[in-house]
């Protein structure tokens, strides 16, 4: 059985960054990727806007991915492509991974530590309780994106899109540019889910209407989509009787959310945070299972790939540290006020030699002029002002963990800024 | 009066613009970048165009490309027409020019993926 | 004379009752030994109630020709295909209908030296009820004692062990627990035992609350105990249908998909020809296994002695992850058929580890309306999810609807036609149709051979092979066997559907199977690619590419489920881009 120090599951931006970080620390590293190329979802994200933070350039997904792929190839980090992980089990001081591919059949490998960079999947029509018939022409945005960008096929001619998240907005533009007609984007919430830039450049530029507080409830059509039924929704996003309308179309594109993929994490009994649907981790991105790390979209759904890479780097570097010297952890919980949707990491390992934590969080609602404070008892660890906080825009802060925290609990709260001055 | 959302930074100020004579009066911006953004958007809006080109390779039927800079907003579909007319029959590296000076905008269309790499046999 | 008077009087009494309680616009008349309702009513419920009122009143069958004011009954959906492929074909047996019943019949008849043609109007077998049920092989305790349902269910249940093994289809005898919350229901046991004895149902036991919880530790409702039926099994109903059909084909039968029966001609009380969209065929005997359209087929032969009323039901599918919370089949339905004609549903753990919840049951006019409705889905969730602690609406990954082919007598019709010599019926097959299939097929085989032997020599085939090997299910194999298959064919090592762990090799095998299929859904039915939690989000483009590589069918011609259900409409960049909505 081959043995490694660090095995990274997933060769997308998170896994590539993690593998490089681990390799650069001198670890015997392996990447396992189930597709036939590295790059993950970035391969099909041919639009730009990636890497503004990391590279100070506006790159497309494939370009961003290639920056990392080139390094991985140059370092000759071993990669298993077209390889699928069947099971992972704890074994002694490490893990045994059972995998399958065409060349080797079913094989097992051993590793000291594991980095889960398995990304996420898309929420489906049935998960948002769209009823009616099941004709051809209903796609999740990612699947439609793959068909258009990788294979070169148009999923339909007259499309409606449910969900104003970035993927839905990007596809609105993409489909329009390739000659389809996008009739409207419907959004069940009362505010758009995607970045403002995308509202402007994907919808407004092409005069595609955005209907808020509206959802798709039914699909019509025997063989191919013929129409959808839309309805206004109330504050709880439940359809309001009597507001139904039938809209003719031949394609339904769904952009109704991403769900972190954590089947492997479940197999290992990793504790999952119900708010993120990803593992509970400390500032080193180690999960509740010693030696198992999580990063990227599998940890929580990100907006910016730059932060995905960052979380991969942190996970990779710390997996290496764990392999070098596994020390017992002392975990302090980060308690968040109800103003937050989630905070990652959810814990701080006070014993860790890594005293610099990166924290990602999302506000539950749109809030203006807020001060976010992170405290341990009376000790203020961070105090930052925000002109605006929006749920679709994840925030990132850096935290220094002083020696001798005042208490075992760390709290993150937000409150309105006292004075009315606007900060730049 | 025109309404715009500034996209220069994540704050996304809601701007209003009123034309007075030849000038635009911008309100709602928290910084100068917002004012400049609004004026640009109203006088000479520009966008980058990202798409794919056909190839002759069955294994890789499409190669992603983008404009190496921003073209006028009203030239987007003309640029797309030029992009759609291309059929790539030789491998290219990232950044190689696929269309030079597309639609006379002074901007090139470049490859954003490495076709040499994509065409390689899957290694195991 | 006198008898005629009595008959007429009885009819009159019934007619008066219907006119009084349902609608004055109804008239009844006798046809052979059946009763025909004609006239107009205001609602479908009235139409159904009128039919019900006339059922089991001493007539052979109820033919309900009532019309509902303002309701347009949709015509049968026909395939787009039209050609001469079958023109002039002479066959010994024509089986109409490719559900599990038709396919099972074809398989049994294939052991005789007969030419067999099965016609199915959809693009694949098992597209109606046979793929829209919970896969439960009932113990047989529920149907009315002495009914055909009862007899064939018990017999079929027994036969399944052998047939599933022969056809290489996974069958799990998981047993079912019927929960009860009143300790008084324990008193029902002796009554149940007598019933079970009469019906031939074995393996019934009474479980105490503790024993029930031991079998099913996650029961989330208060219970006093449970009745356990050890003979209950679960199977994949569409995989079983495909297996039956493939084994029939392997033994010489022909299956023609996208083939709909349009009309028939008769001479001297025998069917002489059957017209389809692919030409006219000349069968010696016709078997009517046409599901929700069996009465329409009967009418084509001038022999409609019953009517089908479509009873719809929805089922939900839960994420495989929750499969570990239950071990078998659990329900809190009625133990005997009292009020409703169908059991109340429950939760079923499928052979693949998913959980099925439901079904519900309600009358409605449309024979092929498989649309789902939020009200029904919500009602099923409310009724059944609480049965297990840990089930929630967030676990739902899919739902679908099915239509039951019910006669007003609510029993199977398994017999030779009384008036058309060469027509045999396997009609009105509703639940427990799946459980009864092997037994129904055996009986129809017997009847058909008898009918045929009146006009020809029926001899057994020397080389009939009952054994059919299915496509290997790698995801459920041990690693060693799995590796072995991959070494022989590396395609089996390339995982395409990650949610269900389905390999490229399995998909290729489905495309080249004995009943070749090229639509994405047909492949899904055979190997489950696309049935997992992401519902094909990741694997759809790859499955399409594989179909294209294996068959040469262009991507733009690949369909979801045949006819014009094309998945992608055009290749991009074929024409100069039109201006779309335009930009400023």
What does this structure look like?
The complex is a heterotrimer of chains A (424), B (124) and C (584). With 424 residues, chain A is of the alpha/beta class. Chain A has helices at residues 13-24, 61-75, 141-151, 166-177, 196-203, 263-267, 305-324, and strands at 2-9, 29-32, 48-50, 59-60, 79-80, 84-91, 94-101, 105-116, 120-122, 131-132, 138-140, 153-154, 158-162, 181-186, 210-211, 214-220, 227-232, 245-248, 251-254, 258-260, 272-273, 278-279, 292-294, 331-336, 340-344, 347-349, 356-363, 367-376, 379-389, 395-400, 409-416. Chain A has three domains: 1-121 and 259-324, FAD/NAD(P)-binding domain; 124-256, FAD/NAD(P)-binding domain (3-Layer(bba) Sandwich); 331-424, Immunoglobulin-like. Chain A is 20% helix and 37% strand. In chain A, β6 (84-91) and β7 (94-101) form a beta hairpin. Chain B has 124 residues and is α+β, with helices and mostly antiparallel strands. Chain B folds into two domains: 2-43, no CATH class; 50-119, CPE0013-like fold (Roll). Helices cover 21% and strands 32% of the residues of chain B. Chain B has three helices and ten strands. In chain B, β1 and β2 form a beta hairpin. Chain B is elongated and about 60 Å long. The relative contact order of chain B is 0.15. With 584 residues, chain C is of the alpha/beta class. Chain C has 14 helices and 27 strands. In chain C, β15 (270-276) and β16 (279-288) form a beta hairpin. The radius of gyration of chain C is 25 Å and the shape is globular. Classes of the chains: A alpha/beta (424), B alpha+beta (124), C alpha/beta (584). Chains in contact: A-B, A-C, B-C. β12 of chain A pairs antiparallel with β27 of chain C.
